[in-house]
Amino acid sequence: YQVVNDFLAYPPLALWSPYLVYKTSHLKHHEDINLTIPNVDPESYFISKDEWDTLSRYRQKFAEFNMTLLGRLTLGPLWYFFALKKELFMSLKKPFSISFLVMFSHEFIVVILLYFIWSYFNVHFVTYIVCAYFAHALTMLRSFYEHRPSSNPNHRSVIMETFFPLRILFLNNNYHFVHHKNPSMSWYLIPREYKLNSEKYNQSNGFFLEKGYFKWFKKYLFKNKGRSYIQKATVRKSLGLILIIFFTLKLIFLVLILFNKLFVVSNLTKFPLFKIAILLHISCLLYTSDAADDS
Questions:
Q1: What is the dihedral of CA 257, 263, 264, 265, to 10 degrees?
Q2: What's the pTM?
Q3: 8 A C-beta contact, residue 142 and residue 170
Q4: Between the CA atoms of 94, 98, 102 and 103, what dihedral angle is there, to the nearest 10 degrees?
Q5: Are strands 209-211 and 159-161 parallel, antiparallel or unpaired?
Q6: Which terminus of the chain has fewer CB atoms gathered within 10 Å of its CB, N or C?
Q7: How far, in whole angstroms, is CA 44 from its chain's centroid?
Q8: pLDDT per residue over 48-77, tens digit each?
Q9: Packing angle between helix 19-29 and helix 2-9, nearest 10 degrees?
């Protein structure tokens, strides 16, 4: 059933991440021996002390804020979004690669999806993006402290005991250590597995056990959750400029679609403004391709 699962998961309803990119990085993340190791674990939020010392003071302050729960919930989705756009720009160096095809098709499908939802379900694309942002922030709550640095790889993944609605919302990924030890186990079987073998799992992960997400709010809302490693929150200046240009042009793209939506009743594709918007978007990608080569 893997092909069916891939087909169902492929549409970017959450907007942020291309499914194939996430699948590849997540499978690598499941190499438990490398969990949390900077630049090895693709889902690690940490960098080494040596890298930390190279950051400017304001970037260190910002990174420390991003290690608080408040920072992760408010800015975490934004930085994850920037990281994905960085991958897009890097893929532009090889426009005939699989990576470029995956990233570019994701961008294209997202724009089509937003227009489709707006046109047929009357949900404004801004509303949908805001909802997707909050949804991603909710996943950041689950993942905020699901891994910690430890010399023992088994002690790096948390078991979070929480109430039923959140367990369903997170597809039982709150039992994260159980998930890592049984990556092929269906999500609905994980609670039973933990219930039958809770003592074994708790001993195995060094009793890295939490009782409810509310405690994280009390402990880490304004407090950094750890200093042995620091949240990666750096963007090179050249890449930052590229991102500003990209999102400025993309904003123009969406504004032009909005203008057509408000003032044109017929088929959007027949009108010049839509064609201009498409050209602007393509120009943006071509420009960022050259900029990525130069950076």
A1: 120
A2: 0.73
A3: yes
A4: -20
A5: parallel
A6: N
A7: 12
A8: 888 888 888 887 888 888 888 999 999 888
A9: 120
